[in-house]
Amino acid sequence: MSDELNSPQYDVPPEMQGQIAITTLDKIYNWSRRSSVWPMFFGLACCAIEMIATATSRFDIARFGMEVMRPSPRQTDLLLVSGTVTKKMIPQIVRLYNQMPEPKYVVAMGACASGGGPFKEGYNVVSGIDNYIPVDVYIPGCPPTPQALLHGLITLQKKIDKQTLKTARWYDKESEAAIPVPVFGPDIMDPRDYEAIKLHAQEKLQAELNIPSPEVEQG
Amino acid sequence: MSEQTVTRTLDLAERFPGAVTPDERPGYEGYLVQPGRLLEVTTALRDELGFDYLSSVTGVDYLPEGKMEVVYHLYQSVGGSALVLKAQIPRDDPRAPSLVPVFPGAELQEREAYDLLGIRFEGHPDLRRILMWEGFEGHPLRKDWREPYYEEDAKPFKSRWPEGHVWRAEDKNPFHKNVSYPAGFNPETWVPEGDAALYAALGKVEQRGASTTMKTDQVIVNLGPQHPSTHGVFRMVVTLDGETVVALKPVMGYLHRNHEKIGERNTYLQNMPFTDRLDYFCSMSNNFGYALAVEKLMGVKPPERCEYIRVIMAELTRIVNHLLAIGFLLNDLGAYFTPLIYAFEERELILDVFEAVSGSRMMCNYFRFGGVARDFPEGVLERVRDLVYERLPRKIDELDLYLTNNDIIRMRAEGVGVLRPEQAIALSAVGPVLRGSGVPYDVRRADPYSIYERFDFDVAVRYHGDVYDRYLIRLDEIRQSLRILQQAVRDIPDGPIQEGKPQYQVRVPAGEAYGRVEGPKGELGYYVISNGKPNPWRYHVRAPSFINLTTLEPMALGNKIADVVIILGSIDIVLGEVDR
Predict the structure, then answer these.
(1) Is any Cβ of chain B less than 8 angstroms from the Cβ of A204?
(2) Residue A175: exposed, middle, or buried by beta-carbon count in 10 A (0-12, 13-18, 19+)?
(3) Backbone angle region of A128, left / alpha / beta, with phi > 0 → left and psi within -120 to 50 → alpha
(4) What is the value of ipTM here, to two decimals?
(5) pLDDT reading at A149 higher than 90
(6) Residue B148: per-residue pLDDT
(7) B18 touches chain A (CB under 8 A)
(8) Per-residue pLDDT tens digits for B168-214
(9) CB-side exposure of A151: number of CA atoms within 13 Å?
(10) For residues B15-29, b (16+ Cβ closer than 10 Å) or e, as one string?
(11) Does B177 touch chain A (CB under 8 A)?
(12) Residue-wise over B167-202: b if at least 16 C-beta within 10 A, else e?
């Protein structure tokens, strides 16, 4: 432990080595945060099963201090988006994300969460969770093996290690506003896009009025 | 069997003159029924001819002919082959009578046909959208409905790299997202429908059954879609009187991944990996059902060795599934994670076998039409032999020893969530839920497929119909699967594993086929219609978990809210299959 934390600029007298460590606030802060990331106990689809498999004896996520899975978003640091994100589910996911306290991280596990995956063309499928919430780590695979998931989580730990208190967004004076929750319309609607939706629907109407194109139905 | 079918033909057309005519399109089977007389015909079939089990209800959009068709698959609960009924209705005003008064098990399936195809079932008690939300534009499975990322009607699509320039579906969409809105739509004046219809449906139920002796307030509680005990993104809305459930509605669609729409654009073989992701615990059994349906259409039969390989894979899958079902049930009962970790330990060993033969742990994509993708690599058969003779029997006995007579489990599970046999049949329950209620119906015996006739095994059945029996029956079935596996591993012959040459693009003659297997969760059926083109015209999955959910409400009523969680756990649902 002390090796990991010690800052090399300071020499510790030989008789005290192994007992004290001189370090920076950033380092010890990040070290403790990344060694106790609590994921949300939240499974969406197939990937969730591999997530559970990662928690069991063969792979043992507890080695990384991540075995404490909490069903409540208010007690978690990590949103593991494990599976296909559908339009019907996205309002819940955005809401869960908003309810998580800072510092929070998002891992997109598997092809679906990263970009829609095999179901991308589906009418009820969101092509990537990053359309709505920011993602820290993407893990490819369908589903990713537990080893791949562990690699993704180690990558997240490395990312946490590089953060510094000076620029951390959760200590900003103007903390980030909550992400607006999408609304069920004729299709899913992101409140940030309302202007564009209105504009485009008007253009579509104009086009239909000007050129009354016959509805060609393909058999 | 064929003789019986012939007599039935005569009977049916004679018994209902003017209402029933044989379906004479080439490649089709069954009967066309006048929609107006459907209720009369099905009631008579149920009461007089013993067709008391409605397996599947779905719709087909015949766009070129300008009509829609509602397709019913009926079975006798004593076993035998299917009776297929079809009601043809005009496409511009699709209305059909609801079969819920005759077969309550049709409820969720009719709602699905309404949601995705817009067929209105008259007399349905609660006809709302089920997979999409209220207010969604259009009925997606209609052939002229196009998704926002629409490219072409059928795969393989043209190149997405024309002249070396890559384009993505996002680039063609004005919002760079998977969305589209009707012309002239104004989001600022839009009022979302919300859950008003859902709560109204609950209210209706509430007036029927609530006790009025004490003046207490009833509370509506939402469980899910994010809830640790709903096995994924399932949501149920319950009305509580104190802690007692007086009304319950399942809400689903949170994992609706559009299998059927995508499946109808795909070529036949392209659908195989998609079936893996239906019930993601049991990809091998899912492959099996789909392969059977398409093989029926193509008229091919896999070689001997392949049949054995298929049976070995399907039965190993059943063991995996039942182990996990027990593990998750124990989780719901409060034995948090420890039994589940025991179950996962065995699962890992079986997944090693899957990975060795197919290259993937969970999504095996292993079956092909008329064969399997590849033969067993060296050493796999020995590993399976070791598992089914040595390790698994010992481990199952261990689970049995630790759990079955545990006081807490018995107190929580015995007598809770009782489903009577006649109820189970009427509600179209399948698999362990049906057999746990005392109905010995197993597709492997009732309507044998593949080579299951050769094996010596019993159809496990338990008679109390409560949560405890549904736990016990899974242990029984694991033991029966081990018996089958021991015989299969002993008898497996050498030989080819694929009939003919392996093909990417199979030629499927026009017609319809319904392939069904006894998946770990129950009868898994695939209804495939081919019009001779490389893509299926209709591809429907009759998902056991989805239809088993019809039994949730009758089982939960009158129980405590804490018991609803274990009742759901004992049904053993997987959301990938419920929502598809």
Answers:
(1) yes
(2) exposed
(3) left
(4) 0.87
(5) yes
(6) 87
(7) no
(8) 888 888 888 888 888 888 888 888 887 888 888 877 544 444 555 65
(9) 10
(10) ebeebbeebeeebbb
(11) yes
(12) eebbeebebebbbbbeeebebeebeeeebeebeebb
- The whole-angstrom separation of Cα A134 and Cα A129 is 8
Amino acid at B124: H
Strand partners for B72: B57, B85
**pTM of this prediction?**
0.89
DSSP A6-54: --TTSPPPGGGBTTB----HHHHHHHHHHTS--BB----SHHHHHHHHH
What does the alpha-carbon distance between residue B21 and residue B17 come to, in Å, rounded to a whole number?
8
φ, ψ dihedrals at A160, nearest 5° = -60, -40
Is the domain spanning B259-579 CATH 1.10.645.10? The answer is yes
DSSP state of B518: E
> Domain locations in chain B?
3-122, 259-579
DSSP letter string over B450-516? TTGGGS-------SS-SHHHHHHHHHHHHHHHHHHHHHHHHHPPPS-SBSSS--SS----SEEEEEE
In this structure, what token pair is assigned to residue A202?
């008007």
Asked if B143's CB is within 8 angstroms of A219's CB, the reply is yes
Cβ neighbours around B9 below 10 Å, total = 14
- Residues B437 and B454: their CA atoms lie apart, in Å, by 27
Give the distance from residue B332's alpha carbon to the nearest chain A alpha carbon, in angstroms. 14
Q: How confident is the model at residue A219 (pLDDT cuts 50, 70, 90)?
A: very low
Query: Which among B470, B485, B477 has a CA at the least distance from the CA of B555?
Result: B470
**B560: phi then psi, degrees, rounded to nearest 5:** -80, 155
Q: What is the CA radius of gyration of chain A?
A: 23
What is the per-residue pLDDT for B213?
60
Q: Which fold has domain B3-122?
A: Beta Polymerase; domain 2 (3.30.460)
Locus of tokens 């809210």: B561
Q: Are A157 and A128 in contact (CB under 8 A)?
A: no
By the CB < 8 Å criterion, does A180 face chain B?
A: no
Q: Do B3-122 and B259-579 fold alike per CATH?
A: no
SS3 state at A138: strand
Distance from CA of A49 to the nearest CA of B (A): 8
